[in-house]
Amino acid sequence: MKLAYWMYAGPAHIGTLRVASSFKNVHAIMHAPLGDDYFNVMRSMLERERDFTPVTASIVDRHVLARGSQEKVVDNITRKDKEERPDLIVLTPTCTSSILQEDLQNFVDRASITSNSDVILADVNHYRVNELQAADRTLEQVVRYYLEKARRQGTLDQSITKEPSANIIGIFTLGFHNQHDCRELKRLLQDLNIKVNKVIPEGGSVKDLHDLPKAWFNLVPYREIGLMTAIYLEKNFGMPYISITPMGIVDTAECIRQIEKHVNNLVSNKKFNYEPYIDQQTRFVSQAAWFSRSIDCQNLTGKKAVVFGDATHAASITRILAREMGIRVSCTGTYCKHDAEWFKEQVQGFCDEILITDDHTKVGDMIARIEPSAIFGTQMERHIGKRLDIPCGVISSPVHIQNFPLGYRPFLGYEGTNQIADLVYNSFTLGMEDHLLEIFGGHDTKEVITKSLSTDTDLTWNHESQLELNKIPGFVRGKIKRNTEKFARQNNITNITVEIMYAAKEALSA
Amino acid sequence: MSNKISETLTFECETGNYHTFCPISCVAWLYQKIEDSFFLVVGTKTCGYFLQNALGVMIFAEPRYAMAELEEGDISAQLNDYEELKRLCLQIKKDRNPSVIIWIGTCTTEIIKMDLEGMAPKLENELGIPIVVARANGLDYAFTQGEDTVLAAMAHRCPEQILLIERKKVIQDSNIQNLFSFLSLEKKEETTNKNFEKLKKNPPLVLFGSLPSTVASQLSSELKRQSVQVSGWLPAQRYTDLPSLGDQVYVCGVNPFLSRTATTLMRRRKCKLIGAPFPIGPDGTRAWIEKICSVFGIKTEGLEKREEQIWENLKDYLNLVRGKSVFFMGDNLLEISLARFLIRCGMIVYEIGIPYLDKRYQAAELSFLQNTCKNMSIPMPRIVEKPDNYNQIQRMRELKPDLAITGMAHANPLEARGINTKWSVEFTFAQIHGFTNARDVLELVTRPLRRNNNLENLGWSNLTKKETKNEI
Lengths: 510, 472
Ligand code: SF4
What we know:
Shape of chain A: globular
Mean pLDDT of chain B: 87
Strand content of chain A: 5-15%
Helix content of chain B: 40-55%
Largest sheet of chain A: 5 strands, parallel
Radius of gyration of chain B: 24 Å
Strand content of chain B: 5-15%
Distance between the termini of chain A: 53 Å
Strand order of the largest sheet of chain A: 12-11-10-13-14
Bound molecules: iron/sulfur cluster
Strand order of the largest sheet of chain B: 1-12-11-10-13-14
Number of strands of chain A: 16
Mean pLDDT of chain A: 89
Oligomer: heterodimer
Low-confidence stretches of chain B: 1-5, 174-196, 468-472
Structural class of chain A: alpha/beta
Shape of chain B: globular
Distance between the termini of chain B: 22 Å
Low-confidence stretches of chain A: 441-455
């Protein structure tokens, strides 16, 4: 047992649901108690989804506990098959089904006989993997299922496209700025004259998965999800993959050079040379290279920062801060414990310390000890920063609704470098402004001039009413006080009691 | 609308495939209500993830709750549950020193049959802190029923009432009260003196249901106006202030989802239950007060006028809602009371979805609903227990209600299809009880309608691309 207040990565089924609901026309059925479909709320609220989230539950209740699911799961699958006609139904186990040990595979086998949809059981164990690992697995499982199906049916066409093309693997729902990143990657590939063959899972159709091998290579922008799929495709179809995250100027260039290498391996007549493109973009399209030469960035030299997040974002941001902006990263860390080795290797030489933990109190203590000028982390670090009065730029999940901006905010590619430069600069200047204001006598707006009507002399609040007033949340207390006093004056009352307060509320809200 | 009005309520039961919050969410408001408590949810990452996201920013304010997260070793019984819980509770005691620790049992503790009830008394002795066990899991309950399980467990911890002392205290209290009101509001002198006479006669009355303290004192003072003295609340502001219970004590619920608590109070603590409609809306509040007074043989004074006054104050909102139709998808058990209030406001209710309906505990509310429908000449809504969200959405497609009261999972998709929605959870967190807060209920209900008045004529109410036949 572990005393836990907060977690960075969610339970396994969330990962499966994120992948399943990112595909078009795929329905997930959770084998779960009532109340575990909270995923639908998150998707609907955070992504502001217009469509109903294609996730339902086959509810585990007392009856199921006593007698097993029996026909229930099968019925729910066949019912969904009729109602929504999905291409694929993914039966999703939860922590509850992990310990019930029902033969879910058997239900899946039976249901797939009667339904038109394909049906699979997500191969994830609640106690072994977290949200990110589960997502990675589920994506691989779905891809494998359809490629093997195509192979069995003899419909698998293994020839590659005439022009260079790529699959983008790992863009999905509730991912940190994923939609914007995807658009930016497509633009980048287009600039390089490379066609986008497929993007999965977001917006992809499982019916098209058999076309995946047509691409010349796979691009896996995030470390956490997509790698398993890419490795499967490499093993079985000889497809090369690129897993360098194109975040920051240096790594974006590196990613492009890798692309060049793979593409040139396959073309025979002409060779691609992307160097002029990289140069042009770096010097003139992205403002980040210029920014790091400018006076603004000079002022940031040697300032201390702390970075924490998922492996991809924490590693990339660390390298950008240290290598591209001359900021001193005192500590960097990730909660992706399962990927600790890779992470350490990536940030080696770019930071003073490395912290691998999923315990937010350890992160908090570390920040308090280091006292950096700015933090780059998740929502949790933002709140730690608030408490310690240190500005924080959010660079990784887990996130809140404000991290699903409507405006275009990629982290990847050349536009991403601009966004990151803004984010970093704003975090630091905010902190410095605050600091300067403090030195020169504080914010002049701190003393809010009260628009109180009362002179505070002619009215008395008795003890009870004062207690009552103090119970009212601070931000409305002033208003309630003013309104009550106004009401009291109008009614020639000098002694304010609790009753008067309520009477005032009723009278004034009318 | 047809003129034919059905006379009786009809109840249906669907598949139970609906969206609601897990009952462990009660931790969110109960830890705030009971100031010296600590809630320990014994469950998995799934439970923790839900709480973390549902509680939103509260989570960053060092809440008095935590997860005892079960790991593989706990499930396979390689680890000793008792020792593990002891270790965690010791740490909680050290860090927070609460007056009570409440263990929330979850689906997992049910399935692996972890004997929380058996371990609690032992550990309680060892630690010297009361440990209350509530099984608020998603296998058995929905959303607000979580509070019901916690309060039912707490009812066992209330001290036994000793009538003589209690009575003396009531008299003393009323003396003090009297003194205060005399000082504060001179006009009241006469009535309070009269009240004083009556107060002596009012047997102990304990109200149950967790309300924000302002709302609780509003209700208490409403009753005081009718010279009914409230002797305690379950739960009180602090665990150490739990009210005394016994066979002379009358109890009355303030929320519709407290049927287990009511049963426990009656059967185990031998209290007398006053079955009344719930004090939601001015109509409900008046009926609630009237019922309590009638049990005590007190004639209410000025109540009718007071209700009228409140309705008068609501006029602007009533103009907005009159004639509009509502569809309750159902997820928090407040639905019957809210529907009854909205019908009285002149709205038409098509369907009342509700997770679970205790017809005995809600009897007074149900017949009040029936009467309200008759008085307003509005057809009886269908009441659907354990609704099926998919079917409901099909029905909404036919009915095209002006407003759907629904969970957050469906709100945005419905809005995109041109159906106004109000999130149902807001009703559980807003102040909706008593005369004073009637306006707040309508504030919530009319918000989407008012928003629409602002956005009218822009021509983009339907924002979905293509409509498949299965969707609205
Ligand atoms: S439904 Fe069960 S497993 Fe899910 S959050 Fe609630 S108690 Fe935990």
